[in-house]
């Protein structure tokens, strides 16, 4: 069995038989620098070579335990260190979660993602979320969890409970990680990603743009994701939602073309991954979202709320998908 150690690799440290192309940061920067239309066109070509461009994977995200997180991530309203006015919520009841999952499925979601605001789960938390995962899985939905840093054996327990995906984002360029997240480091993230892979779970791993980073730093984030070997099956690209009370509440506005470029570069460098247009969609006009789909985004978060911030209404999502002749990708449990 392959054992993954997903720490960031220099080119001369690559595994003997890498399954993915190694991307230097400067190569990713070259993609970012392409003329906009050429970049979108190239990404659209890569998209068509690997996917049905009309199929969109729909995930619904539910915060099952909200706020009061001891971590210090400058973008996050759930950190207990920031005064954002967010109401803390203890772990939701399993019945309530299952009810929400049923609704998500009835509305067309194929994957149900559950998030808990922890640095990482304790063994007793794993027991609780395992029961929840099994109950959601029994509805015929794909399951995804985002619970923070994992200790030995936890990923195996989650897999055993029926978890399909584990979400663990690399957030930003590894070189500026410590400027954004102050209570863990990039290697901690890579360590959990390795545990997730070794347990046979699929990886959902992306990042956030619009956090005052430079273009080379955006390229650094994409290179760090593309150089995960194997590449993540799912790559959420988030645009920062500036929440009052967080250190990034006044972050500079990222030009919309730069966001579309980020989607396109993610598509080109991770041709077989689902690239998800994630947080920040409420602020994106339909035409911008359309360009993102053209540039290779083929997954969205679907539902009223992301973890704690708003998401476009489902009706407007359906309307946009109808206008663009896009359809939801269905999930066949028997395939897994
Ligand atoms: S991003 Fe996650 S770990 Fe960081 S403060 Fe928010 S909930 Fe906690």
TrEMBL record:
It catalyses: (4R,5S)-dethiobiotin + (sulfur carrier)-SH + 2 reduced [2Fe-2S]-[ferredoxin] + 2 S-adenosyl-L-methionine = (sulfur carrier)-H + biotin + 2 5'-deoxyadenosine + 2 L-methionine + 2 oxidized [2Fe-2S]-[ferredoxin]. Its cofactor is [4Fe-4S] cluster; [2Fe-2S] cluster. The keyword Cell inner membrane does not apply. Binds 1 [4Fe-4S] cluster. The cluster is coordinated with 3 cysteines and an exchangeable S-adenosyl-L-methionine. GO terms for biological process: biotin biosynthetic process. Its EC number is 2.8.1.6. Catalyzes the conversion of dethiobiotin (DTB) to biotin by the insertion of a sulfur atom into dethiobiotin via a radical-based mechanism. It comes from the Bacteria. Keywords: 2Fe-2S, 4Fe-4S, Biotin biosynthesis, Iron, Iron-sulfur, Metal-binding, S-adenosyl-L-methionine, Transferase. GO terms for molecular function: 2 iron, 2 sulfur cluster binding; 4 iron, 4 sulfur cluster binding; biotin synthase activity; iron ion binding. Pfam families: BATS (PF06968), Radical_SAM (PF04055). Homodimer. The keyword Translocase does not apply. Residues 54-281 form the Radical SAM core domain. Gene3D superfamilies: Aldolase class I (3.20.20.70). Pathway: Cofactor biosynthesis; biotin biosynthesis; biotin from 7,8-diaminononanoate: step 2/2. [4Fe-4S] cluster binds at residues 69, 73, 76. This is Biotin synthase. Belongs to the radical SAM superfamily. Biotin synthase family. It is an enzyme of class 2 (transferase). [2Fe-2S] cluster binds at residues 113, 144, 204, 276.
